[in-house]
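Record type: monomer structure entry
Structure origin: computed from sequence
Chain ID: A
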Amino acid sequence: MLVYLRLIKESFSFALTALNNNRLRTFLSLLGVTVGIFSIIAVLAAVDSLDRSIRENLDGIDTNTMYLMTISFGPTDVPKWKRDNFEPISYDDYKFIRKNISDVEETAYSIFGIRETVRYQAETISGVNIGAVTHGIYAIERLKLDKGRFYTELESETGAPVVVIGYRLAENLFGQEEPIGKQIRIFGRKLRVIGVLQKFGDAIGDSPDDTAYMPVNFVRGIINTGKTGYPTAIVIKPTANVDIDAFEQVLEQKFRVHRGVKAGDISDFFLSRLSGFVNIIDSIIASLNVIGWMLSGFSLLVGGFGIANIMFVSVKERTNIIGIQKALGAKNKFILFQFLFEAIILALLGGLVGLILVWLITIISTLALDDFKFVLSFTNICIGLGISTFIGLVSGVIPALTASRLDPVEAIRSGI
């Protein structure tokens, strides 16, 4: 064991000597490994951070939650001209679901894609996301209140002029002023602020922090929700432990009858689970990882050739020393491991530089983006070090074998 520890120490010493004596050559040789490790780990860290952020946003939302609308979550075989002629999901459809579908914990009717200007006294904010939705969304999305309350079912049904605003929207409109009870203008109408949500952070699409939630029946009297108007949807959360496949079949069949869809005809709506959306995200993230590995692989290949090159040069420069070591009794295995360890150490140095660069970028990016946190996980660090070790091992094995097989007499003679 002590022999191998001494071998590692000597190899590290030789590696540092090679770095010091041939700085430019070593720098250029290790640049490929550094760029390759940086590229791979940067992509993995970015994708992991994005994946973590998405899952945190979906945390608490039941993935069995269904969205009934005329827009599909993913690819569909239904031609666009047919989809364009689908009857929009109406408020009557929502009432039918509530009355006729069992095993439903909560439902909500929503008009989405609305952007409006919000005003409070001299403050004006444009392009605010309007959450025109029934009261059930509060339980489905598990929204949390910082102060005040959410509107009731009665207020939702009657279209009361009340609004619940997101954390950041409240800060931008009111600053340090108490928002509860104040009146703001949306669609040119006055609405009373009855609640402010807790800070949520970034989300898929629009964050609740920047959203104004109001009863859908208030908004229905103002905007168009027909074929040429804003899209609508019914959000359905089944009860816990229900047979989700059977529930989906019953729901689709009853809704087809309600909409007058004939047997054999395609449904004029799409019923999509949130889990399907999650699967789409997973496939996108997997594709990003593959692309990152492919692009970074070229840099690692160049880095591997660079390490191999510097090791062949190192063998050439130290041929005389190798001959002396063998003449003094050094075994082939000792010479082999000496150069292998040196190649691995050189590759690890390049990999460490790449990891340090990624770490610095994650810190800077996290500070620059207030609501998004970049994370360099321990797993990715291990992957980076593992790849570096593998590159060093593969790149150094042929030069190390060449050095270990040198004839001691010829090696000493070549150095004279």
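Annotation 1: The longest strand covers residues 104-120.
Annotation 2: Strands lie at 66-69, 104-120, 123-133, 145-148, 162-165, 183-186, 189-197, 211-214, 232-238, 270-273.
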